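User: Show me a protein chain along with its predicted structure.
Assistant: Here is one chain, sequence first, then structure tokens.
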Amino acid sequence: MTGGDDELIELAKRGDQEAWRALYRAHAGRLLVWLSTRPSGDTSETAEDIASQAWLTAAERVHDFSGTSDDFAGWLFGIARKHAANTRRRGERRRTHPVDLGGADTMGTLPAVPGPEPAVAAQDWVVRALATLPERERDVVGCREVVGLDVASTATALGISAVAVRVAHHRGLRRLRSIVGDGAGQDGSSARSLSR
């Protein structure tokens, strides 16, 4: 092993497929959840697209990474943050937001199909609550509370100091508590669960 890399990272650097699978299993779900809480700015690219770009970049640049498999999360999330920022800028330049084509009259009515509405509604509530926060607080609370990154990994992912992470986390949770109040949210969760 070289300078602080653990065995899993060393194997991934050598192209070991099992090591990459282990890193993917450990971080892919959290990355996708985190990206879905951030506004993309370009409706043509989804959180899955940005996550894919981040994984490809990580695979290309893993030889430059040094640290443990736990440190890998912050590095990967930082790559994804930069891809998301590029996507947002590109979307603003291209203005790729959908246009109204005349509403349901033009498109016709589609039959209702049962789906995962309760789960989507709960996720939507979280995304809307996070959207009320300033960008830094939203990103920090998303990293810490939604996907469970530690302070160091969050700092690496967002390109800010650990102190800034702690301050933004505290402020973001305080704002969310004031938004939610002492009552329960739409999904029945208490505002106290936001402060963990």
